[in-house]
Specification:
alpha+beta; five-stranded mixed β-sheet; two-stranded antiparallel sheet; globular; disordered N terminus
Length: 191
């Protein structure tokens, strides 16, 4: 993969961060063709999905926005975007794409406008995702995202965002009472 030199984070030299081989810090490299957010700039446009009350990091917003534009133009995700997904999310990107390919994501909506996503995980368990606040009920989200801060998202939440971008999310309309029951059932199972 070709590397491109970008500016170091402000104050990096003063903090005494040793440069990597080639005189660049590891955070100073990005794949060629990466979204502008990799270069330290602000994302050019907000994410298309209006359901995001809390924002994702700029690089993720930019990548998903560019993927959505590419899907609108050509009905497919370019290889360049798939490589960037792998660069940002590692193996979770492939697992999330597999969930999208298997159509494991369902958007459950109620007449009051409330909605949640349910993702049938690779283990056969169903997880509830709230895209508006970037939450998933899976153990990986609790451990890797919330506790250790190793990951930006779990594979289930990433699959939700990818299914929104690709328009492959299954839809299910339920009553407000049924949606409440779905959420309470999940809470009781976790307790």
């Amino acid at each position: 993969m070709t590397e491109v030199n970008v500016t170091a984070p402000r104050g990096a030299a003063r903090r005494g961060a040793p440069p990597a081989a080639g005189g660049r810090l590891p955070s100073q490299t990005r794949p060629r063709g990466a979204p502008r957010a990799f270069r330290g700039g602000r994302a050019r446009r907000p994410m298309a999905a209006a359901s995001r009350a809390v924002t994702l990091p700029a690089v993720v917003e930019e990548l998903l926005s560019e993927m959505a534009a590419a899907v609108r133009e050509s009905a497919r995700v370019p290889d360049e975007h798939l490589l960037l997904l792998k660069f940002v999310f590692g193996s979770s990107a492939l697992q999330a794409l597999d969930l999208v390919d298997r159509q494991s994501i369902t958007l459950i909506s109620s007449p009051s406008g409330r909605h949640v996503y349910q993702v049938l995980g690779s283990s056969g368990k169903t997880y509830t995702c709230l895209a508006s606040c970037h939450y998933c009920s899976c153990p990986a989200f609790a451990f890797s995202v919330l506790r250790k801060s190793d990951s930006l998202l779990c594979k289930h939440l990433l699959a939700v965002y990818l299914s929104q971008v690709m328009g492959t999310c299954q839809q299910l309309s339920v009553s407000d009472k049924q949606l409440t029951d779905i959420l309470l059932m999940k809470k009781n199972q976790e307790a």
